[in-house]
Amino acid sequence: AVQRLSVLFNHLSVPFLSTSGSLSSNEASAAEASDQDAKLQVDVGRLVAFLREGYDAECLQVRSELLKVLAEPLFRPRYNITMDEHRRITTERVRRLAKDNLLKTANLLSKYNQYVMEKEHLAYVDFSLQVKHAVHFGLFSGTVHRLGTEKHHRHFE
């Protein structure tokens, strides 16, 4: 696995990964593979800087708050549940996110990087959550925001 990641990262020219020496072919023995593990080095500081690239301080603050909410037990993965149970849990999750008003529809237009970051983090938890949130708060609310009158805007603020 490390060998595959190393080859992929080298192809992508990722700035935070470096390898010392060349990697052997797919026929490498287990001993060679463990030796390669030791050669693979990740510069954590550069990795963090790479992941934060393009985000302003406000976006990073929102991400921090969002990650605290996503760490709650409600957002833990659930396996082997019925479709009805999954729908119920997804609805509970959307309600929880709406409660703190962390994910604002206005960000779709004014802070697009933040909007994308929010959707990306929701997808880490559950794609159903991301889709439901995008449809309810992005598609529907975005339509009202763009096409609605002042009366509609006041209702959704």
Low-pLDDT runs? 19-30
The assigned structural class equals: mainly alpha
Helix content: 55-70%
Q: How far apart lie the N and C ends?
A: 48 Å
* Strand segment tally: 2
Order of helices and strands: HEHEHHHHHHH
Chain-averaged pLDDT: 75
Structure description:
The chain has 9 helices and 2 strands; from the N terminus they run H-E-H-E-H-H-H-H-H-H-H. The chain is 69% helix and 4% strand. The chain has a two-stranded antiparallel ribbon with strand order 1-2. Helix 4 (57-70) runs parallel beside helix 7 and helix 7 (112-125) packs antiparallel against helix 8 (127-147). It has 157 residues and is mainly α. The chain has helices at 2-12, 30-39, 44-52, 57-70, 83-100, 107-110, 112-125, 127-147, 150-156; strands at residues 17-19, 40-42.
